């Protein structure tokens, strides 16, 4: 059997530009989701590029991505403008994440091995250490590692990818910079690990959904403070 033709590798410069575009999109997405960029605000190519220390090209590509997500709109002869973000939009995002996460949690509770549960316990202790030292970047990495291990234990890699894809709308810093959130997350993980050890599927699903309910409430409270809805 003939081997399939090899895909032509992207030039390094193209890869670098693609990575920059993703980083710019992530920054703008976070600013929109937290009310830093208000509805009706025009995002200027040159100003944004200068602020972020990049060229105009990755900003233009990032705006194209956000336009596809419905976060900005292109107005002829005026540029890209932030579209309204409603309370319902935020609730829908968290509903979708929670729905996928609960499905994964039910599968994890049935399939996870004792060794994988031990790994979760180790990862949660790493999260606890990061929270104790008030290190937001380390907290974000530890939290991501915990849920990645949990979701991989399901064997449902495609569904886990969809969850990760939706999770990019979460402005992580409002959680990782909150000591109260860190303590709450650690406690929820410990309860989940205990439930996994005895096969309490309903408890694992409930605790998983509770994390997303808590996340939605925290983001909505932040947006209420910014008077975004007004």
From TrEMBL:
Q: Which PROSITE patterns match?
A: HTH_GNTR
Which domain of life does this protein belong to? Bacteria
Q: Which residues form the HTH gntR-type domain?
A: 18-85
Gene Ontology molecular function, alphabetical: DNA binding; DNA-binding transcription factor activity
User: What keyword terms does UniProt attach to this protein?
Assistant: DNA-binding, Transcription, Transcription regulation
Q: Give the CDD domains listed for this entry.
A: WHTH_GntR (cd07377)
Q: Which PANTHER family match?
A: GLUCONATE OPERON TRANSCRIPTIONAL REPRESSOR, TRANSCRIPTIONAL REGULATOR, GNTR FAMILY
Task: Name it.
Answer: GntR family transcriptional regulator
């Amino acid at each position: 059997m003939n081997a399939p033709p090899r895909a032509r590798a992207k030039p390094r410069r193209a890869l670098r530009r693609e990575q920059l575009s993703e980083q710019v999109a992530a920054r703008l997405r976070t600013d929109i989701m937290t009310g830093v960029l208000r509805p009706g605000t025009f995002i200027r190519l040159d100003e944004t590029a200068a602020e972020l220390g990049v060229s105009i090209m990755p900003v233009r590509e990032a705006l194209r991505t956000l336009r596809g997500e419905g976060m900005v709109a292109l107005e002829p002869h005026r540029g890209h403008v932030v579209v309204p973000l409603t309370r319902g939009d935020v609730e829908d995002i968290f509903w979708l994440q929670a729905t996928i996460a609960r499905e994964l949690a039910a599968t994890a509770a049935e399939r996870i091995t004792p060794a994988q549960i031990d790994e979760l316990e180790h990862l949660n202790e790493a999260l606890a250490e990061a929270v104790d030292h008030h290190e937001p970047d380390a907290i974000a990495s530890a939290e991501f590692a915990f849920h990645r291990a949990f979701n991989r234990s399901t064997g449902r890699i495609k569904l886990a990818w969809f969850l990760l894809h939706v999770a990019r709308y979460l402005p992580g810093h409002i959680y990782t910079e909150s000591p109260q959130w860190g303590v709450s997350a650690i406690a929820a993980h410990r309860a989940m690990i205990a439930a996994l050890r005895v096969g309490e599927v309903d408890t694992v699903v409930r605790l998983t959904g509770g994390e997303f309910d808590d996340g939605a409430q925290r983001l909505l409270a932040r947006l209420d403070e910014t008077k975004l809805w007004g």
